[in-house]
């Protein structure tokens, strides 16, 4: 499943729901996860993993074209931690 359409097709078939309802669910899930992360909370997807927000500190980088040092500002970035069930399922094969 590499595209949203493929995810919707797979979920709709598995749950016997319409593709419209499945797409609405996926959109609501994405919105809920984004809202949770922007509020500073984590988002747990049971059996899949946990999404959190990590603070990245300011640092000095290099301009690849000129090699000149540049300041990279501090920022927040989403981070994913896989659940044990997912790790075990991937390692099984």
Please describe the topology of this protein.
Elements: H1 4-15, H2 19-38, E1 43-45, E2 49-56, E3 59-62, E4 69-72, E5 75-82, H3 84-92
Antiparallel strand pairs: 1-2, 2-5, 3-4
Helix pairs in contact: 1-2
Tell me the number of strands.
5
Q: Count up the helices.
A: 3
Radius of gyration using CA atoms only: 19 Å
Under CATH at level 1, the class of the largest domain stands as Few Secondary Structures
Q: In percent, how helical is the residue content?
A: 40-55%
Biggest sheet statistics = 3 strands, antiparallel
What is the CATH H-level superfamily of the largest domain?
IHF-like DNA-binding proteins
Order of helices and strands: HHEEEEEH
Question: What is the CATH-assigned architecture of the largest domain?
Answer: Irregular
CATH fold-type name of the largest domain: HU Protein, Chain A
**If strands are numbered along the chain, what order do they take across the biggest sheet?**
1-2-5
Note the beta-strand portion: 25-35%
Low-confidence stretches: none
Based on secondary structure, the structural category is alpha+beta
Distance between the termini: 18 Å
Mean pLDDT: 95
Give the overall silhouette. elongated
Structural write-up:
The chain has 93 residues and is of the alpha+beta class. The protein folds into two domains: 39 residues; 52 residues, IHF-like DNA-binding proteins (HU Protein, Chain A). It contains three helices and five strands. It has a three-stranded antiparallel beta sheet. It starts with a helix and ends with a helix. The mean pLDDT is 95.
């Amino acid at each position: 499943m590499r595209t949203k359409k493929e995810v919707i097709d797979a979920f709709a078939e598995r749950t016997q729901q319409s593709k419209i309802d499945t797409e609405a669910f996926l959109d609501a899930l994405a919105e809920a996860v984004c809202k949770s992360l922007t509020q500073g909370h984590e988002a747990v997807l049971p059996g899949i993993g946990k999404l959190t927000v990590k603070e990245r500190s300011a640092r000095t980088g290099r301009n690849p074209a000129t090699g000149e040092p540049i300041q990279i500002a501090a920022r927040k970035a989403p981070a994913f931690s896989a659940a044990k069930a997912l790790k075990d399922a991937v390692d099984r094969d």
